[in-house]
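Notebook, bench 3.
Goal today: get a predicted structure for HhH-GPD domain-containing protein from Desulfosarcina ovata subsp. ovata so we can plan the truncation constructs. The sequence was checked against the plasmid map this morning, with no discrepancies at the termini. Length recorded as 299 residues. Pasting the sequence as submitted so the record is complete.
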Amino acid sequence: MYIKTLKIKCPDNYSLDMTCHVHGWKNLAPFEWHVGDQSLSFSCYALDTPIDLRLWQKQDYIEIRVESDSTLSPSEVEQIFALINRSLGLEVRTEALLEIADKVGAEYVALVKNGAGRMLRSPSLWEDASKTLFTTNCTWALTKHMCHAVCSAKFSRPTPNNRYPFPKPEIFKDLEPNEIENLMPIGYRSHYFINLAKRFSQDSRLDGIEMNGYDFNSAYKIVASLNGFGPYASNHLMILCGYFDEVPIDTVVISYLKNNYRVRKPEAFIRRHYKKWKKFRWWGFTLEKMLNKQNWLGD
């Protein structure tokens, strides 16, 4: 086994714990959050090499333990840095969010200064898109089951610790829906999943949606063109791409609004009530839930 330790400098107001507890992604395979030492572990690919990662925050740095079956090339190490930066939001700036929070209330400022404003994402946009599809029209327990099923020996090579990374899209793009259904419990999503794999096999960056400076509407058109992505899934993936203009409305959101505001028309209420957050409407909603201690994390 080959072991390598890496370090990445944290941006201002960064907290690994907060980043991993903004939403429920830490509970979906191959992620695992370790309460004892406040660390995150997961398996992934460095180019074509399956690896194990474990990450801790040590003051102003993220320390990374990498385990692989062979020595890693400079290109593989470079990709490890890139995927960790994406997953942990280490290149996300929160100054604009902090500026709005300062106008809303001191309690919101405190949250952002304590690490809110960044969220755990998958190493790749493909994985985030797939997991978003797995959250549609089902219970959270089934979402976790689907993620666990896809991270298996059926689709990926094992890491040194016998874990299985989320597979690459090329594994699925030429399969038929009935073949998918026989291999993993994703039901009606099999057709959409295959189409998603085909799209990401052709364009892993989805038209450069995370880096090309699209406005919200232009980016939304790209995401909504994915088969199986209605308003909820599209807005959910938009958030994972860094566009926080809208709140994806699911049963958890509806329940929160009913319990706290007795809302009957969530779309109109959200637009009005969180308007002051401008392009960070989702963060306004999420920070409010944190303050109310009602930020459901899928535990």
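The mean pLDDT is 96. The first helix runs from residue 16 to 20.
Flagging this for group meeting.
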